[in-house]
Amino acid sequence: MTTEHTLRTPEADLVYDVHGPLPAAGGRPPLLTIGQPMDATGFRTLASHLPDRTVVAYDPRGLGRSTRKDGRDDHDPVTQAGDVHALIEALGGGPVDMFASSGGAVTALALVAAHPADVGVLVAHEPPLLPLLPDAAAAARARAAVRDAYESRGWGAGMAAFIAMTSWKGEFTDAYFAQPAPDPAMFGMPAEDDGTRGDPLLSDRSWAVSDYRPDAAALKAAPARIVIAVGEESDGILTGRTSLAAAELLGQDATVFPSHHGGFLGGEFGQAGQPERFAEKLREVLNAP
User: Fold this and answer.
1) Could you tell me what percent of the chain has a pLDDT over 90?
2) C-alpha span between 120 and 98 (Å, rounded)
3) N or C: which terminus of the chain has fewer CB atoms within 10 Å of its end residue's CB?
4) Considering the entire predicted model, what is its pTM?
5) Residue 270 Rama label (left phi>0; alpha psi -120 to 50; beta)
């Protein structure tokens, strides 16, 4: 059973889905799943493979069904961490277990640093933390080129540039920047410009997410068990490299999960991973002593 709820705060109305009963069965805490810029719809398949857990998924402020009242259009992990803290309080308080992916993993790291009692186990899956890379300046330049392609030629050009950036193996060298701009048609993207420029992935509105530098001391001191996860298919590419760097920052090895950056997806956005295998691995990690 899935129910929809809304948490109203002074700055945002946060919509979230609860898959299963609350309070959670068996005395176990709910499993809170968060993404960014992905909303709660991306976790439906994963929740279906975790019938033994109550899974909560929310739409970050300004994304999906959640509306914002703060007059802003940027996406900041510290602000979103405050929203997640409020959501955990609404669920009955922590600690909860958490699976967080991509920008959601960045938010989760900010949450644990600011509110360490909120989380018991955090699986942070492929956080895109550019400052941790040895080629951080070049990675930021590659990110800016995606924004520039989007601003000048529209969504198709921006998404093609984004795919080229996120699939590049290794550091961003002169060879990367010498490439011609990718043709959107190569990736099945439209070449026409629809005139919109509000995409949180392709614009600079989410740069605060990928610019975030985790507070290693606060994270190491927190009671939460933090697991940095990386997809088995992400070796050498951007989010694979940032995951290894985040794990190193926390003095651990990254835990390898099945599939790729969207390995838990069941085709919600046209990209399927291996959700059944992914859920099995997640359950194993969550249940580890």
Assistant:
1) 93
2) 8
3) C
4) 0.96
5) left
